[in-house]
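Lecture notes, unit on protein representations.

Consider one protein chain, 261 amino acids long.
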Amino acid sequence: MTPKLEVRDISKSFGTLEVLRGISIDVADHEFLAIVGPSGCGKTTLLRTIAGIETSDTGSIRVDGKQVTKPGADRGFVFQQDCLFPWRTVWENTIFGLEINGKVSAETTARTRQLLQLVGLTGFEKYYPTQLSGGMRQRVNLARALAINPEVLIMDEPFSALDAQTREVMQLELTRIWQQGRKTVLFITHQIDEAVFLADRVVVLGRRPGRIKEVVPIDLPRPRGLAVKRDPRFVTYVDRVWNLIENDVRDSVREDATVAS
């Protein structure tokens, strides 16, 4: 069976700085794949390359067998910051992608209203971003990415700016939304427990230049509630991933401290 997403031998440098080296992975249809690694290992660059925002120096990326050469409606991107237009309402922000792709219709409008209900924002359509909490703004961001009905949903640390309690709630909400829509998801996070909680597999990248150290399958039953984080199997997975990157994280911290001094 052809993978939904094929990443083959992706390498990327910015001038003399080598960021990624030889990244290859297949992602199945409906799979939730999380990517973790130390700061500066190229996680965001990899996602931006898959999204078509960056171009790689070597290799290829395909969605449903079609080569990725630029951004497209087959990939939705949820950024670390909510990136909402402050002058547009929740509704206007949510349909923005449909507008620029010329796909606003009775059918897509009805589907977008269903998405706002799915993310818990029915009744907030006329609110502006400044009137919303951080978690609510990220819900709008998620709904906007889903509104274009992408084949692959790409998420770059979408909960990093949220407080710990809101982050936990958003993890639950994302699993609920994913269970209903079953999009193929690529999700970057620095939080190992978040990756284990959300993902079917966790890709562990080593320090720059980013290379795949290991791909860890997460064999925990779904649907998952927060109680699973107290399951000994969950803790074992977290420890396994941390052991894979601990030395790289320490080296990255020492390197950053040396540069700062």
